[in-house]
Design a protein that fits this description.
- The chain has about 160 residues and is α/β, with parallel strands linked by helices.
- It has helices spanning about 10-25, 55-70, 80-85, 90-95, 120-145; strands spanning about 5, 25-30, 45-50, 75, 100-105, 150-155.
- The chain is built from five helices and six strands.
- Strand 5 (about 100-105), helix 5 (about 120-145) and strand 6 (about 150-155) form a beta-alpha-beta unit.
- It starts with a strand and ends in an 8-residue tail after the last strand.
């Protein structure tokens, strides 16, 4: 059975991704911030509580993954800092046949967006950093011959919860 870790699985795109993977027979692990966890949603088979503002919760989540010796096929990042999410599982992604890192963010946040109106500069800069980080990871994996593929996906228009 293939396994996915979705960061930001508590609502919106992350929760819908979890539901889609479940419908397709995947084992799902979702990370949520404790204060936004929806306990009553049965879609996430395993939950890792992470608050990206607290490094100790990232370390604890990484230990949890190591203790279970899980092999990840996909890391889908729908929230927070992708680098923090990646710190959870470099070994888990490269084990076996490699894996995929998918960073999801709206193209409208891109500095290169043709509708860029000069607003939300800090938000757009943060999202540009995601692009750079994704490309840098891809180069590093290739150089080290680690079979992990990285990509950034624009989910299109969506309404926030």
């Amino acid at each position: 059975m293939k396994t996915v870790l979705v960061i930001g699985a508590n609502r919106g795109i992350g929760l819908e991704l979890i539901r889609t993977f479940v419908d397709n027979g995947w084992r799902t692990i979702g990370s949520t911030r404790p204060r936004t966890l929806r306990e009553n949603d049965p879609s996430v088979s395993e939950i890792i509580k992470i608050d990206y503002e607290r490094e100790d919760t990232i370390i604890e989540a990484a230990k949890t993954l190591c203790d279970t010796d899980v092999k990840l096929d996909v890391l889908a990042n729908c929230a927070a800092d992708p680098w923090s999410g990646f710190k959870l599982c470099p070994y888990h992604l490269s084990a076996g046949n490699g894996g995929k890192i998918i960073n999801i963010f709206p193209g409208s946040a891109s500095i290169g967006d043709p509708d860029h109106d000069g607003e939300s500069v800090s938000y757009r800069m943060a999202k540009a950093a995601v692009n750079s980080e994704t490309k840098t990871l891809a180069i590093n994996f290739k150089t080290a011959r680690i079979p992990v593929t990285t990509t950034v996906i624009d989910p299109g228009s969506s309404k926030p919860d």
